[in-house]
Design a protein that fits this description.
Order of helices and strands: HEEEEEEEEEEEEEEEEEEEEEEE
Shape: globular
Structural class: mainly beta
Strand order of the largest sheet: 9-10-11-12-23-18-17-14-15
Strand content: 35-45%
CATH architecture of the largest domain: Distorted Sandwich
Radius of gyration: 23 Å
CATH topology of the largest domain: Beta-galactosidase, Chain A, domain 5
Length: 297
C-alpha cells in the first residue's frame, strides 16, 4: 500500500515544527555557552555579564573586572613600605579604618593561600596575610557566586569569614572593599538615610581620608558615575554586628574605597565574623538612583 503524499498544509506544519525544534536547540546551545566558566589554573571566571581575573600570586586580589564588555573597572597599587608583599590596594581588600595612622590588614599585602572552583559558577578562597606592617595571619575564607541568567545576571554574591579565635581584633573592620576605577569618574556614593525613607548623596572626594556615615540604615549603597549613569550597588546582608557606611577614596590605585564598616564590639572581634554582600552592576537602562533596587539585586 503506497503512502499518501502530504498536502501543502501538512508540509507547512512539518516545516514549522522543524523550525521550532531548531530554534529550541539553538537557544539551548546558547544557554549552555552562557554558563559560568571557572578556570582554576588561570584564576578566571567568565559569565554572560562578567569577566573576572584574580592574581596568580595573591589569591584574594582581583586584578581585572569587566561587566558587559567594559574596560577594566578596577586597579591595584603596591605600597612602597612593603613592596615585597605585593599589591596592597585591590578589589576585595579588608582593612581597619586607619584611625590612628596605622593600617591593620586582614586581606591585602602579603596574602597567600588557595584558590579553587566551587561548582560551575563559584570560587572558594582561603587566605592569610603575613610579613608586612599590620598583618596578623588571621585566617580568611572568601567565596564568590556568579549567576548566568535571569534578574541576577548582573550580580556577584560575596561571602567572607574571618576566624579571629580568642585573639581580639580591637578595631572597626572594613570587611570587603569593592574598588572601582577611576575614582574621579565613580565620584558619588548614594544611600538611604537611617530611616530608609530618604536618599542621601555623598561626594567621595570630600572623604579623602575616610568618612564614617552613621545616617544609614545598613541595607545598601551605590558607587555612582553621575555622567554615564553607571555604577555598582553594594547590598549588605544584615549581620549580628552594628554597621556604618565608610566613604573613602584611595590615591595609590586611584580607586573608590567605600564599603560597609563593621563596628567593633567592646573588647574587639573574636571567634568567627561573617560578612555577606551582593555587588550589583548597573547602567541607566537597569536602574536610576532611587530607594527601590533593580530586580535581582
Amino acid at each position: 500500500m503506497s503512502e499518501r503524499p502530504l498536502s501543502y498544509e501538512e508540509v507547512t506544519v512539518v516545516r514549522r515544527l522543524i523550525a521550532i525544534s531548531a530554534a529550541v536547540l539553538f537557544a539551548s546551545a546558547l544557554a549552555v555557552a552562557a554558563f559560568a566558566a571557572v578556570d582554576p589554573d588561570q584564576r578566571t571566571v567568565t559569565t554572560g555579564a562578567f569577566q573576572v581575573r584574580w592574581s596568580l600570586t595573591d589569591p584574594e586580589e582581583i586584578l581585572g573586572l569587566s561587566w558587559n564588555g567594559s574596560a577594566n573597572l578596577t586597579n591595584s597599587w603596591t605600597h612602597p613600605f612593603c613592596p615585597e608583599g605585593g599589591d596592597h590596594e585591590f578589589f576585595g581588600n579588608a582593612w581597619d579604618t586607619y584611625s590612628d595612622g596605622r593600617f591593620r590588614s586582614l586581606v591585602g599585602w602579603g596574602s597567600t593561600g588557595s584558590w579553587d572552583a566551587q561548582g560551575p559558577g563559584g570560587v572558594a578562597i582561603g587566605s592569610a596575610d603575613f610579613g608586612c606592617y599590620g598583618t596578623s595571619g588571621t585566617p580568611v575564607d572568601t567565596s564568590y557566586r556568579f549567576f548566568d541568567n535571569g534578574n541576577e545576571v548582573n550580580r556577584i554574591l560575596v561571602h567572607r569569614r574571618f576566624s579571629f579565635g580568642t585573639t581580639p581584633f580591637s578595631f572597626d573592620l572594613r570587611a570587603y572593599i569593592p574598588r572601582l576605577y577611576p575614582r574621579d569618574q565613580y565620584s558619588l556614593v548614594i544611600h538611604p538615610d537611617a530611616s530608609g525613607t530618604g536618599l542621601v548623596t555623598e561626594v567621595g572626594n570630600a572623604c579623602e581620608f575616610g568618612c564614617e556615615i552613621t545616617n544609614w540604615n545598613g541595607t545598601w549603597f551605590a558607587v555612582h558615575d553621575p555622567i554615564s549613569g553607571r555604577g555598582m550597588i553594594v547590598r549588605h546582608a544584615q549581620s549580628a554586628n552594628p554597621v556604618a557606611l565608610w566613604v573613602d577614596m584611595d590615591g595609590g590605585s586611584a580607586t573608590t574605597a567605600s564599603g560597609v564598616l563593621l563596628v567593633a564590639p567592646p573588647g574587639g572581634f573574636t571567634g568567627t565574623v561573617v560578612e555577606v554582600e551582593s555587588l550589583c552592576f548597573y547602567d541607566s537602562s537597569i536602574w536610576a538612583p532611587g530607594l527601590v533596587l533593580p530586580p535581582g539585586c
